[in-house]
């Protein structure tokens, strides 16, 4: 049973008429509702982008709400009742109408609030749906990647595949400007004769490193042995030594002097060596040929392959000297990047070497000009400038396991 505002029972026909009137008012809007998500039962019939048409229709409906008209009286009794109702309505208008207006405003605010809330809920539901779609796509991508990895792991590449990959990597490095000079069609041995020095000069310079290695049993490997100067020094001092170099012309030069040297990449050779098997690892002017990731891998490998108290000796160009950079580092097209001495020290400490020592060597004669400078700000500035330009040209890191 439904009661009207005057307390009379609303007939089913009147209720249907009022509902049909309301549907006609909002009908043009409701026909387009749900078009954003056709066939999706999760989204009721509601506008896809805005609910303003619905609000307008509800506002019109609320504005039309007013006390119902009194029915036409029938007979004396009916006319008397009709007269009494009109009198009562006029007498109570001061009380009823303000409250009716308050109720109308409350209803309007309630409709707007409910509609706004529903909009937010629908937006959240839509975002959840989109996230579910993205998660599903990501799951498919991960599954595809896992399947590709499994297929790759299940197949062992042939030597032809490896050679093809090496060629592709070489092409990429050349395009990046990182290809070694040995990859070019030049005589790298003659290149070293001109820019690094004669064999006798290198031989003399590397004799100072022999005392860094213990006299006990074990093998010392010279990574990037070049023409074999350090190999000759080590063998002459009674050490067991072997040289490794990737340049075939360098290996031919070593074998011409009956030196034990093999052609291989230094990192690849260390990867195949047994752990804790080497007494020492030496590399002079090598690490500047490596990318940072390769350098870190090389130092980590060295730490694992050395015996306890084994020594890793690394000599390279000192980037603290502008003269060394301009005249030595950039002259060699196989150099990738200079390595700061403190950076190399830090890497050695991080991978687990017990003791790491740094020594700068090959001081430029021009630094001696600083000895006669006045002891003031100008003298200090010139001294700093001389050391930055003509500082030590090389440095060596001695890392003990």
Overall pLDDT confidence: 76
Give, in spatial order, the strands making up the sheet with the most strands: 3-2-1-4-5-7-6
The number of helical elements comes to: 13
Beta-strand residue percentage = 5-15%
Write up what this structure looks like.
The protein has 401 residues and is of the alpha/beta class. The protein folds into three domains: 12-134, no CATH class; 156-185; 192-400, Vaccinia Virus protein VP39 (Rossmann fold, 3-Layer(aba) Sandwich), CATH 3.40.50.150. Helix content is 54%, strand content 12%. The chain has 13 helices and seven strands. Strands 3-2-1-4-5-7-6 form a seven-stranded mixed β-sheet, with helices on both faces. Helix 10 links the parallel strand 4 and strand 5. Helix 1 packs antiparallel against helix 2, helix 6 packs across helix 7 (229-236) and helix 9 (266-272) runs parallel beside helix 10 (292-305). The longest helix has 80 residues, at 75-154. The protein is elongated and about 140 Å long. It starts with 11 loop residues before the first helix and ends with a strand. The relative contact order is 0.06. The model is unreliable at 28-51 (pLDDT under 50).
């Amino acid at each position: 049973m439904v009661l009207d505002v005057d307390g009379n029972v609303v007939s089913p026909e009147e209720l249907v008429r009022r509902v049909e009137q309301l549907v006609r008012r909002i009908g043009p809007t409701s026909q387009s509702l749900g078009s954003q998500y056709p066939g999706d039962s999760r989204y009721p019939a509601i506008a896809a982008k805005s609910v303003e048409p619905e609000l307008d229709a509800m506002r019109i409906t609320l504005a039309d709400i007013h006390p119902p008209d009194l029915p036409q009286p029938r007979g004396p009794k009916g006319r008397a009742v009709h007269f009494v109702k009109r009198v009562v309505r006029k007498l109570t208008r001061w009380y009823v109408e303000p409250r009716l207006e308050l109720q109308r405003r409350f209803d309007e605010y309630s409709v707007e609030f409910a509609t706004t809330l529903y909009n937010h809920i629908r937006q959240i539901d839509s975002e959840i749906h989109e996230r579910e779609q993205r998660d599903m796509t990501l799951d498919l991508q991960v599954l595809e990647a896992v399947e590709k990895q499994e297929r790759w792991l299940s197949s062992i590449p042939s030597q032809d595949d490896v050679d093809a990959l090496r060629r592709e990597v070489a092409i990429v490095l050349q395009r990046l400007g990182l290809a070694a000079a040995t990859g070019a069609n030049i005589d790298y041995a003659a290149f070293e004769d001109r820019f690094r020095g004669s064999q006798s000069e290198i031989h003399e310079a590397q004799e100072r490193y022999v005392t860094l290695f213990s006299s006990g049993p074990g093998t010392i490997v010279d990574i990037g042995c070049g023409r074999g100067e350090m190999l000759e020094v080590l063998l002459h001092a009674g050490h067991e030594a072997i040289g490794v170099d990737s340049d075939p012309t360098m290996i031919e030069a070593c074998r011409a002097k009956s030196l034990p040297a093999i052609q291989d990449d230094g990192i690849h050779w260390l990867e195949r060596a047994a752990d804790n098997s080497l007494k020492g690892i030496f590399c002079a002017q090598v690490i500047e040929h490596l990318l940072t990731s390769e350098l870190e891998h090389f130092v980590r490998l060295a730490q694992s392959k050395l015996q306890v108290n084994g020594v890793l000796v690394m000599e390279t160009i000192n980037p603290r000297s502008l003269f060394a950079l301009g005249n030595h580092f950039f002259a060699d097209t196989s150099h990738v990047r200079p390595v700061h001495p403190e950076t190399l020290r830090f890497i050695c400490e991080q991978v687990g070497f017990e003791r790491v020592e740094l020594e700068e060597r090959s001081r430029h004669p021009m630094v001696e000009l600083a000895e006669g400078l006045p002891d003031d700000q100008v003298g200090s500035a010139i001294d700093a400038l001389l050391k930055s330009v003509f500082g030590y040209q090389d440095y060596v890191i001695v890392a003990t396991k």
